[in-house]
Amino acid sequence: MRKAMMALLLAVCLTAGGATAQGERIVYVLTVDGAITAAVGDYIERGIQLAEASGGMAVVVRLNTPGGDVTSMTEIMKVLENSRVPVIVHVWPRGGMAASAGTLILLAAHGAAMAPRTTIGAAHPVTLPGGAEADDTMVEKLMNVMVEHAGLFAERRGEAAVDWAERAIRESATAGPAESLELGVIDLIAYDLDDLLDGLDGRTVTLGDGTEVTLYTAGAVTRAVPMSPIEQLLQTLVNPNVAFILLAIGVQAILIELSSPGGWVAGFVGALCLALAAYALGVLPFNWLGLVLIGVAFVLFVLDIKAPTHGALTAAGVGTLIAGALVLFNTPLTSPYGTISIPLVVTVAVLTALFFAFVVAKALQAQKPRAVTGKEGLIGRVGVVKTRLAPEGSVLVAGERWRAVAEEGPVEVGEEVEVVRVDGFRLRVRRRS
């Protein structure tokens, strides 16, 4: 499905931009600012395919990332290795970084550069592919694979680059622009895109299949390739705060649908939010205990409506929901996906409690069956006037004759009336509209 969408986006880009004029030197520029995810992998692959299809001179990936998903990283490295156009990774802007997964992507590129005061390295793995927490044995296995994989790409940059790549993975070593240039990890230091293209001009790079390509990038036309709306959406979802909000909204919307069946909007919104939250949880590292606690919190909210405890269960639900959210995304401060916001969690928990107290409770009360026996069962029933109500007379209601008083003027024999109140053995009625 993702491949089909990428092909469609590529066709649209080619149609909108037209074919590259013969002899025109075009460099396609991609910007990655955030965690490395599957959406970023699709974006880079689409940009490279666009450059290949239109005869581009090269692709520049401006990279600023704290790291990300190992699986997505290896897919991106594979795409770079098989690219038929040179791909240059530029760690940018000044003050940015290409840490962890970003470092290995830089090593896999055909050319590399860094802006001043940027950093690379710290590639020691902390989570397994799929977001699971890793124990020491699994980390060691993954680290050995990453060292070997990174070494294969770094060897074209020299022995010093290979040694540094291993230290970056095993010891979380880092390097700035000057040290990286001295080690051969990067090819140049470039302040901005123009400086990068001027510095690359005349250099020869080797593609994955061994083809040598000389770059003539000075004065080349640059074309920015932005992320598509879908790629932007998927990238936004990979944030623990967004995932938690979607999870809370999804459950509440589903409960609205269950408490007030017959519509479809609440159910659709709930299913959509839960589907998006499931996608985020498929990428983010999370703890299953957190999901259990969040489920228990919603059960407590519902129980307090069914069997009121003067707010005791609701208070327990708020505390349980807060604890569940904090346990669910108990990630280190260095997580590339960010950390859960405590003020946000508390706010959502309180709003959820208020939602259950006022919205769901009213919906459930509205569905309680009205009394159909006794005096209460007469309210709302329709009867027929037997003797003129002026204002008092008699009516036939539910097969029985009752004394009745009309509240809104005289009512003639044979007219229909509706019971609005029962006063002892006398009915208060009004003409049926």
Give a nutshell description of this structure:
The protein has helices at residues 2-17, 38-54, 70-81, 101-108, 136-154, 159-170, 177-183, 193-200, 229-237, 240-259, 265-283, 288-306, 312-328, 342-366, and strands at residues 26-33, 58-64, 87-91, 97-99, 111-114, 119-121, 174-175, 188-189, 204-206, 212-214, 221-224, 382-387, 392-397, 400-406, 416-423, 426-431.
**What is the level-2 CATH architecture name of the largest domain?**
Alpha-Beta Complex
Put simply, the count of helices is: 14
Output the structural class.
alpha/beta
What is the name of the CATH superfamily of the largest domain?
A: 2-enoyl-CoA Hydratase, Chain A, domain 1
User: Which spans of ≥5 residues are poorly predicted at pLDDT below 50?
Assistant: 14-22
Number of strands: 16
Helix content: 40-55%
CATH topology of the largest domain: 2-enoyl-CoA Hydratase, Chain A, domain 1
First-last Cα distance: 58 Å
Q: What is the percentage of strand-forming residues?
A: 15-25%
Shape summary: elongated
CATH class of the largest domain: Alpha Beta
Topology diagram in text:
Elements: H1 2-17, E1 26-33, H2 38-54, E2 58-64, H3 70-81, E3 87-91, E4 97-99, H4 101-108, E5 111-114, E6 119-121, H5 136-154, H6 159-170, E7 174-175, H7 177-183, E8 188-189, H8 193-200, E9 204-206, E10 212-214, E11 221-224, H9 229-237, H10 240-259, H11 265-283, H12 288-306, H13 312-328, H14 342-366, E12 382-387, E13 392-397, E14 400-406, E15 416-423, E16 426-431
Parallel strand pairs: 1-2, 1-11, 2-3, 3-5, 4-6, 5-8, 14-16
Antiparallel strand pairs: 6-7, 9-10, 12-13, 12-15, 13-14, 15-16
Helix pairs in contact: 1-2, 2-3, 2-9, 3-4, 5-6, 10-11, 10-14, 12-13, 12-14, 13-14
